[in-house]
Automatic annotation (TrEMBL), chain A:
Residues 38-181 form the Carbohydrate-binding/sugar hydrolysis domain. NCBIfam families: NosD_copper_fam. The lineage of its organism: Bacteria, Bacillati, Bacillota, Bacilli, Bacillales. It comes from Anoxybacillus tengchongensis. This is Nitrous oxidase accessory protein. The keyword Metal-binding does not apply.
From TrEMBL, chain B:
It comes from the Bacteria. It holds the Pfam family ABC2_membrane_2. Keywords: Membrane, Transmembrane, Transmembrane helix. GO terms for molecular function: ABC-type transporter activity. The chain crosses the membrane at residues 50-72, 93-115, 127-155, 167-188, 241-262. The keyword Transferase does not apply. This is ABC-type transport system involved in multi-copper enzyme maturation permease subunit.
């Protein structure tokens, strides 16, 4: 029994070794020729230099590039094409695909392909995966062209692909950062996407997770349409400040759990539009122009255990009412002004979400010009004291306490203290000096 | 001119209620910042809006009251008539009165912003462009309303009249103006919207400062998709240049009128 076990292990190791670690071949020029001449499973060490593209890989290979190894497409449609399983490309720089079409790397009908530490620049699409399975895109840097986003391609496009892992990539200057198109079971972790139209774009996709990504300064952070069963957690979604900018927009999708995300300084942090059976919980909505926007019907979607801090407008409900508690816990609202006499951590009266400004806005969209202006802010505050004012929504279990950890660990700004101290001390000096002046001496 | 500046500064800074306002402004701004719960982030947030609104509500009021009541008081007590007999040119006198008043009120604003910054630091806030920007624009706002206040003070026959006119001007610019524009918006054709908003900024320094602050923070997306093109313009260099020109006009025109009035008064004296 024991020897049988060792025999199986040995066969597995042998098979694995044969596949991944074949002969090591150094490549100095003619990369395509070296690929064609290599045997399946060979390791090609691509030495420093500029190699002429396009390159096509049709067999399982391991391409390890030394720093400075570049494949230049010279304007060809696809600079590197992979049409084989178990291909591993590492450390290569891929550049110059055609304008308006093609990609830096095309992976077609392949499985177990890995791109690692690959730098892709001056391309239309970065990586285009079509009908792939178990594709690993790790630690790559993708940067598109400096043109309007409508003319760019996507950073990573996964079409009809399943079980892809997209981790720690840095994607910028593209149309959409990571685009899931009929994709299944995709994991996106620790990626950073900036200067894109949509950082993460889900279309007709199913299953998977987006975790710990940083989505910064795009038009939209997350755009999810006609998709289902996603876990969106621990992402930082910051500064989507365009007038149509959304931190996340969930449209016609279902069974999405959005949790522990930080949505900071967005035009609208989260918009729910026909989001069904979704749970929005434990997120932080901080400093957004509008924290939550609910449109159409969002049946069985619950927004609870979130923190709403310093948003100009907490929520705009334009469709059917939405649930702001799960029957036990609601959200923390910094605009909630009542008490917790029984000390159970839940406010004694429901938090009624209402805004005269929102009602005006629906009638005259141009009123947005007076967003948080002195007179309208004053009127809004006054109205909040009248309980008969029509509420847009109600949180029946508003949380009274807030976790202060984040505030305590916040880095202090000595520049601020210096500025404040200089102003404070000099103004005190000026007041003292002015008050001690006498007409005879000084005038 | 230096003598006139020093005299005006000395007299205004001795005003007890100006000092009371300084303390009030400092306490309120510190409270607003400290209770906002997070840092001013270099974009237009509710805490930045709260501090800005505090400035937009209080600073015009104090500038108008301090400036107009002081000058009306000087006039009522006969000190202004005395000053007009001095061998000082009216231009020097106008500039002296204005700059002296400005220094006093800038000091008050600096005290408020200084204490607010310290409060922000104490609550774990971080430095952002907004703090400095808001301070500078509040200084500009103070300067504009002081110019208006000097004129109001001069044309008013006594302190009570100056008080009434100042309060009316403040309420008009800060409270009623927006609703008047909103009313006009509801009756004019839609294509006039941008024109109406642009004109409304020109004729109200409070609106001018509010829009300028938002534009300088590159946050004019808050004005919404209806005003997208206009938002791009206010954030551009030509937008900022226009704001500077309008601010200068708001200072120069009242001061010119003050100068004319003083010249006439000097001839009578």
């Amino acid at each position: 029994m024991r020897s049988l076990f060792f025999l199986i292990i040995s066969i597995v190791i042998l098979l694995f070794t044969e596949t991944v670690y074949g002969e090591k071949i150094e490549v100095h020029k003619q990369l395509q020729q070296a690929i064609d001449e290599a045997h399946a499973g060979d390791v090609l060490i691509v030495k420093k230099g500029i190699y002429k593209g396009p390159i096509i890989i049709r067999k399982p290979l391991h391409l390890v590039a030394e720093p400075g190894a570049v494949v230049d497409g010279g304007g060809s449609e696809y600079v590197v094409t992979i049409r084989a399983p178990r291909v591993h490309v590492e450390g290569l720089t891929v550049r110059n695909s055609a304008y308006g079409k093609g990609a830096g790397v095309l992976i077609q009908e392949s499985s177990h392909v890995t791109l690692k530490h690959v730098r892709i620049e001056q391309v239309h699409y970065g990586v285009y995966v079509e009908k792939g399975t178990h594709i690993n895109l790790l630690n790559n840097a993708i940067r598109g062209r400096d043109i309007h986003f409508a003319q760019r391609g996507n950073g990573i496009h996964l079409l009809k692909t399943s079980h892809a892992v997209v981790r720690e990539n840095h994607i910028s200057r593209v149309q959409d950062g990571i685009y899931l198109d009929w994709a299944k079971q995709t994991v996106m972790e620790k990626n950073k996407v900036t200067d894109a139209r949509y950082a993460l774009h889900f279309m007709y996709s199913e299953g998977g997770a987006a975790k710990e990504n940083v989505l910064k300064e795009n038009i939209n952070g997350i755009m999810m349409m006609m998709s289902k069963q996603f876990n969106i957690g621990h992402n930082t979604i910051v500064r989507q400040l365009d007038y149509r900018g959304y931190g996340a927009l969930i449209y016609d999708s279902e069974y999405v759990v959005m949790h522990n995300n930080t949505l900071l300084y967005n035009s609208t942090a989260l918009s729910l539009q026909n989001a069904r059976h979704c749970h929005i919980k434990d997120n932080e909505f901080i400093g957004n122009y509008r924290a939550l926007h609910s449109l159409y019907e969002n049946p069985d979607t619950i927004v609870f255990k979130n923190k709403f801090l310093g948003n100009m407008e907490d929520a705009l409900i334009q469709g059917t009412p939405i649930a702001f508690d799960d029957g036990h816990r609601g959200n923390y609202w910094d605009t909630y002004r009542f008490y917790d006499f029984n000390d159970d951590g839940i406010g004694d009266t429901p938090h009624r979400i209402r805004s005269m400004y929102s009602r005006l806005l629906r009638k005259w969209p141009s009123v947005q010009f007076y967003f948080q202006s002195p007179a309208l802010a004053l009127l809004d505050t006054t109205e909040s004291f009248f309980t008969h004012a029509q509420a847009q929504g109600e949180d029946h279990f508003p949380t009274m306490k807030i976790d202060q950890d984040k505030k305590e660990t916040k880095e202090r700004s000595w520049k601020l203290l210096l500025f404040g101290s200089v102003l404070f001390i000099s103004s005190l000096f000026m007041i003292r000096y002015g008050r001690r002046m006498t007409y005879e001496k000084n005038c | 001119m230096n003598t006139a500046i020093k005299y005006q500064w000395m007299m205004m800074i001795r005003s007890k209620w100006l000092i009371t306002f300084a303390v009030l402004f400092a306490v309120l701004s510190s409270t607003v910042i400290a209770s906002s719960g997070h840092e001013a982030a270099g974009v237009f947030t509710r805490s930045t809006a709260a501090l800005l609104n505090l400035s937009l509500l209080l600073v015009p009021l104090v500038a108008l009251l301090a400036g107009s009541l002081f000058i009306a008081g000087e006039k009522e007590d006969g000190r202004l008539s005395l000053i007009l007999t001095y061998p000082v040119s009216t231009r020097s006198l106008t500039v002296g009165l204005y700059v002296g008043s400005c220094i006093s009120l800038w000091t008050v604003v600096a005290l408020g912003y200084g204490s607010a910054s310290v409060a922000l630091f104490a609550t774990g806030g971080t430095w952002s462009a907004f703090v400095f920007l808001s301070f500078v624009l509040t200084i500009v706002l103070t300067s504009i309303f002081l110019a208006i206040a000097l004129f109001v003070g001069l044309v008013s026959s006594n302190r009570l009249q100056a008080l009434g006119v100042s309060l009316f001007i403040w309420a008009f610019f800060v409270l009623f103006y927006e609703f008047i524009v909103l009313f006009l918006l509801s009756i004019v054709p839609k294509q006039w919207t941008i024109f109406l908003f642009t004109v409304s900024i020109i004729f109200n320094p409070v609106e001018l400062m509010r829009i300028w602050t938002v534009a300088a923070l590159k946050s004019s997306a808050i004005f919404g998709p209806q005003l997208y093109e206009w938002s791009k313009w206010v954030e551009s260099a030509s937008g900022h240049f226009t704001f500077i020109v309008i601010s200068c006009v708001w200072v120069i025109v009242p001061l010119f009128l003050v100068n004319v009035w003083l010249k006439r008064g000097k001839q009578h004296a």
